[in-house]
């Protein structure tokens, strides 16, 4: 799928579609408009995404008919494998190095996170993922139980594991993402250390020490009451994927649900929040 959108909308639209695609990125920007490419395995998947993109553009005040939105067939030339294989390992948060090609990069003092080439549900390059990882490094306590909600490729679950979490549940509502996460955990010798499940907040048990959710602002506006239910008193929510335009609205929704925003972080045009469920003094 290709389309041209106003620059302020491009990052959020890419974030919205990238975890449901084989890959998504901007190939350039001119005249205040970004030229986007999003690749899918089937035309049916691309058509569903086109409807989602049209809905987003309408809500954002951009006319879909003016965005040159189209779905084109391209030959299967294993471009995704070649693209990921060409990506160089990069430092991630304070103590990790992400290896997109699956080859282990040895960097002193850094823990490798190996991905599975050709399986795209996030490589950790996006600012929202980096913000989450940095919060996990700062706020994780050894032995805690955490949920990686909307886990994608499972990078944040691996960060939580290496930060000392005793119990980790990786959850996504897309079966393909769950399958990719399992492959990534196997590649990182984490099979059996992280539980993977297909589902939503409605399917999860409560009483967790922490939740990390790298999604988008509308999710937090809708799910704030469910998120506080999942946390035990004193538990932490790390919320990312929030654009600058909606951060105040998200903070208000989380506060109304009973969560206290205790930390904020900014990277590029994105915001992340650390929130606490108040400790009521019970065990």
Structure description:
The chain has helices at 7-18, 43-59, 79-86, 127-139, 155-162, 175-187, 217-230, 247-257; strands at residues 2-6, 23-30, 33-39, 90-92, 96-99, 111-114, 145-149, 167-172, 195-198, 208-214, 231-243, 260-267, 270-276. The chain is α/β, with parallel strands linked by helices. It folds into two domains: 2-66, 2-Layer Sandwich (Alpha-Beta Plaits); 122-276, Vaccinia Virus protein VP39 (Rossmann fold), CATH 3.40.50. A hairpin with a 3-residue loop joins strand 4 (90-92) and strand 5 (96-99). Helix 4 runs parallel beside helix 5 (155-162) and helix 7 (217-230) packs parallel to helix 8 (247-257). The longest helix has 17 residues, at 43-59. The radius of gyration is 19 Å and the shape is globular.
Topology:
Layout (H helix, E strand, L loop, with lengths): L1 E5 H12 L4 E8 L2 E7 L3 H17 L19 H8 L3 E3 L3 E4 L11 E4 L12 H13 L5 E5 L5 H8 L4 E6 L2 H13 L7 E4 L9 E7 L2 H14 E13 L3 H11 L2 E8 L2 E7 L7
Parallel strand pairs: 5-6, 7-8, 7-10, 8-9, 10-11
Antiparallel strand pairs: 1-3, 2-3, 4-5, 11-13, 12-13
Helix pairs in contact: 4-5, 7-8
- The backbone outline, from C-alpha atoms, is globular
Structural class: alpha/beta
Q: What's the number of extended β-strand segments? A: 13
CATH topology of the largest domain: Rossmann fold
H/I helix tally:
8
CATH superfamily of the largest domain: Vaccinia Virus protein VP39
Termini separation (Å)?
52 Å
Rg to the nearest angstrom?
19 Å
Instruction: Return the CATH class of the largest domain.
Output: Alpha Beta
Fraction of residues in H or I helices: 25-40%
User: How many structural domains can be distinguished in the coordinates?
Assistant: 2
């Amino acid at each position: 799928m290709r389309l041209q959108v106003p620059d302020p909308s491009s990052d959020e639209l890419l974030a919205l579609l990238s975890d449901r695609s084989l890959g998504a990125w901007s190939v350039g920007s001119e005249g205040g408009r970004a030229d986007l490419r999003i690749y899918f395995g089937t035309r049916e998947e691309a058509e569903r995404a086109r409807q989602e993109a049209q809905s987003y553009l309408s809500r954002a005040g951009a006319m879909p008919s003016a965005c040159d939105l189209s779905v084109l067939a391209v030959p299967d030339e294993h471009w995704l494998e070649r693209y990921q294989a060409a990506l160089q390992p990069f430092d991630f948060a304070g103590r990790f190095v992400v290896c997109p090609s699956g080859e282990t990069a040895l960097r002193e003092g850094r823990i490798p996170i190996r991905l599975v080439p050709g399986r795209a549900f996030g490589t950790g390059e996006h600012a929202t993922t980096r913000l989450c990882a940095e919060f996990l490094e700062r706020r994780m306590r050894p032995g805690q139980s955490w949920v990686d909600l909307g886990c994608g490729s499972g990078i944040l679950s691996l960060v939580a594991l290496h930060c000392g979490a005793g119990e980790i549940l990786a959850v996504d509502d897309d079966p393909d993402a769950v399958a990719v996460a399992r492959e990534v955990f196997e590649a990182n010798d984490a099979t059996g250390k992280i539980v993977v499940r297909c589902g939503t907040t409605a399917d999860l048990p409560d009483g967790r020490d922490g939740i990390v959710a790298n999604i988008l602002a509308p999710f937090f506006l809708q799910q704030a009451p469910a998120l506080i239910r999942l946390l035990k008193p004193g538990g932490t929510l790390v919320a990312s994927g929030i654009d600058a335009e909606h951060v105040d609205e998200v903070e208000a929704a989380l506060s109304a649900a009973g969560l206290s925003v205790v930390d904020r972080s900014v990277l590029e045009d994105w915001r992340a929040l650390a929130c606490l469920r108040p400790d009521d003094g019970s065990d």
